[in-house]
Amino acid sequence: MREAASAPDLLAWYDANARVLPWRVSPSDRAAGVQPDPYAVWLSEIMLQQTTVAAVKAYFTRFMLLWPTVQALAAARDEDVMAEWAGLGYYARARNLLKCAREVTELGGFPKSRTGLEALPGIGPYTSAAISSIAYDHPETVLDGNVERVMSRLYAVLEPLPDSKETLRAHAASLTPKLRAGDYAQAVMDLGATLCTPKSPACGICPWRVPCIARAEGIADTLPRKRPKAAKPTRLGIAYIARRADGAWLMERRPDKGLLGGMLGWPGAAWGEARVAAPPLEADWQPLTEEARHTFTHFHLRLDIHIAHLPHDTEVEGLEFVPKHAFTPKALPTVMRKAFDLAQSAFNTAQQ
Description:
The chain is α+β, with helices and mostly antiparallel strands. 41% of the residues lie in helices and 11% in strands. The protein is built from 14 helices and 7 strands. A hairpin with a 4-residue loop joins strand 5 (292-295) and strand 6 (300-310). Helix 1 (7-17) crosses helix 12, helix 3 (38-48) crosses helix 4 and helix 3 (38-48) packs antiparallel against helix 9 (125-136). The longest helix is centred in the C-terminal third of the chain and has 18 residues, at 334-351. The radius of gyration is 24 Å and the shape is elongated.
């Protein structure tokens, strides 16, 4: 009979091999009675959605320096938080981050139950389980991409994702212990991130190598299976980038809802199958030969760029001029910054 996978085996491995992460309480500190900060756990989990640990570390550290408590974040200006979030993507997360921080502050703290957490903006089933488990040590089943991969291999689940998600969840739930649930949740995620990786898994040093069915059958690196992805469509657009004689940049704030919601960007029209966008004002618009290209989750985007120099006293209804001293390229969404980089080079060339 095959040896069954057990939480104690994984926890013993985790105690010796846990990743050092800025939002994490180490297993030794937790054993000594140090409790995780629910605010840090929540902030890291929101940032980690659709993003890598490597990308999140610097953002998390900077946020904690600027806003060390949920109350401090709740009191922050929206534009300051959005600017610090720029480049991390999925900007609806940043808007919900502020809404959630303000609701938590009104409540007097984070709820401890999954149901209470899921009532907050931006917190879904996975995030509520992760916070409840990691912050409060509740035996909740945490199922992210790493855990799905580990479970699919451990039990040789051949059904492709996302169809197999509930099967994988059931396997993960069967292994979740009542004691040290928070450490266990992080241990499974660490296992997937460091040993049970998508390619070339390190099966020889895995703490679950003996009970792993996929390893025994030699198919570990083929799992989890996934349904073929549909090809991403390409959308087209135009970015009108204008600089006034005093150095101010003409910008528009996008609607709160939708892609890049609430962020400052360059005037233009909706992105679609054709580039149809009237300039925001009459000016000597010059097209650039290069276009800004960016890939979002569901489509590729190609932006033509038109630049113009404007007189000192220019004003445009419905748009705003950001003064030179207040303009920070790093605060732009990535696609807008790509367009700016190309435009800035053209403006600099024109001045020479």
